[in-house]
TrEMBL record:
<dbReference type="InterPro" id="IPR017941">
    <property type="entry name" value="Rieske_2Fe-2S"/>
</dbReference>
<dbReference type="InterPro" id="IPR036922">
    <property type="entry name" value="Rieske_2Fe-2S_sf"/>
</dbReference>
<keyword id="KW-0479">Metal-binding</keyword>
<dbReference type="GO" id="GO:0051537">
    <property type="term" value="F:2 iron, 2 sulfur cluster binding"/>
</dbReference>
<keyword id="KW-0001">2Fe-2S</keyword>
<keyword id="KW-0411">Iron-sulfur</keyword>
<keyword id="KW-0408">Iron</keyword>
<dbReference type="Pfam" id="PF00355">
    <property type="entry name" value="Rieske"/>
</dbReference>
<feature type="domain" description="Rieske">
    <location>
        <begin position="3"/>
        <end position="115"/>
    </location>
</feature>
<dbReference type="GO" id="GO:0046872">
    <property type="term" value="F:metal ion binding"/>
</dbReference>
<protein>
    <submittedName>
        <fullName>Rieske (2Fe-2S) protein</fullName>
    </submittedName>
</protein>
Amino acid sequence: MARHVVATVDQIPLDQRLLVQVNGREIGIFNVGGEYFAVGNRCPHEGASLCKGRIVGLVEATGPGDYQYSRRGELLRCPWHGWEFDLRTGRSWCEPDRTKVRSYDLKVEPGGALIEGELRAETFQVTIDKQYVVLEV
């Protein structure tokens, strides 16, 4: 699995999103309360641009007139038919066992970690020998 640097954290403000393309796939990156999630941009129901949908929370009821609102900003609602998907898992809220949008692993890393990690240019030893610069390959 290849790593792709897709944005800086400044490009995705709190509770906002950014649509990126990686290897021909459109992927939505979401900043939910400082946590970052990534899901595919295609609704599995009929292919709508899922990342254009509203971000909502979860409304639960224990009985008539007793409602609780939780998980603010963690559900993504399809703009065409209102199907809702959990940004943490990609699972449909209506049919969690059958329907799921593709979710991707995402990390926020400091710039220094990228330099020390796999994204490093090949370097070569250079020495100066009297008047000649010698490159060792």
